[in-house]
Amino acid sequence: GNNGCPPGTFSVAISADNSIMTLMFDNFEATIGPKVPKGSNSKYCAVTVKLDVPDNWRYRIDAADYRGYCNLESGVTGTITSGYGHGGKNDQTRFSKSLRGPLSEDYLLHSGNQRGATSPCGKQANSKNSVRITLRIGLQSRNEQAQGLITADSADHVFKQELPLTWEKC
Fold first, then answer.
1. 155: number of Cβ within 10 Å
2. Mean pLDDT across 40-67
3. Is CATH 2.60.40 the classification given to domain 10-169?
4. How far is residue 118 from each of residues 37, 76, 130, measured CA to CA in Å?
5. Residues 6 or more apart in contact with residue 54 via CB below 8 angstroms
6. What is the per-residue pLDDT for 157?
7. Which residues lie below 8 Å from residue 80, measured CB to CB, with a gap of 6+?
8. Torsion over CA of 95, 46, 61 and 151, rounded to 10 degrees?
9. CB under 8 Å to 136, separation ≥6 — which residues?
């Protein structure tokens, strides 16, 4: 289920020039360790964003940037995976990055540089011009005593994902 972003815990912003879509998540974190409740090591979120696409234009997402904080003991691996699809379709394009312990730092990860799936063209397909974004964070370790946390930035407590939008004429 959507255990990582209940209503009211995330927001979406589009830059004034429509070149960047930023998703911000409050309290989006995964933890692992001997006293951590089962299931806390993985969080999932799905968000649908409606985009106003002008006539004769379409867009695609070719990369993703992730910002946050991690504290991973030796043997703990954190993975961030996101995907997006157009018109209600899931994960037509996927991005993934991993962090390996020991590591304790704010991070900025860039994933992508691939050609993403292209949206339908302009207003004639406007009912299909929504983008469904999925995001999963998870922690794994073979050592049951190892601890780890992957979470929001320590300064503003917001996990941030930035998606550059590439626009082209149809």
1. 8
2. 85
3. no
4. 40, 36, 12
5. 122, 123
6. 39
7. 66, 96, 97, 98, 99, 109, 111, 135, 136, 137, 150
8. -50
9. 4, 42, 43, 44, 45, 79, 80, 81, 82
Q: Taking the C-alpha atoms of 90, 160, 138 and 92 in order, what is their torsion angle to the nearest 10 degrees? A: 20
What is Dmax (Cα atoms) for the chain?
Answer: 56
Is 141 buried (19+), middle (13-18) or exposed (0-12) by CB count in 10 A?
A: buried
Whose CA is closest to 75, among 164, 163, 140?
140
Residues 58 and 125 sit within 8 Å (Cβ to Cβ): no
Exposed/middle/buried for residue 151 (C-beta within 10 Å: 0-12, 13-18, 19+):
buried
- What's the rounded Cα separation, in Å, for the pair 134 and 2? 10
Give me 145's structure tokens: 């005593």
What tens digit of pLDDT does each residue of 115-163 get?
777 887 776 555 567 888 888 999 999 999 999 999 754 334 345 677 7
β-strands 77-86, 42-50 pairing: unpaired
Q: What residue ranges do the domains of the chain occupy? A: 10-169
Residue bearing tokens 């469904």: 132
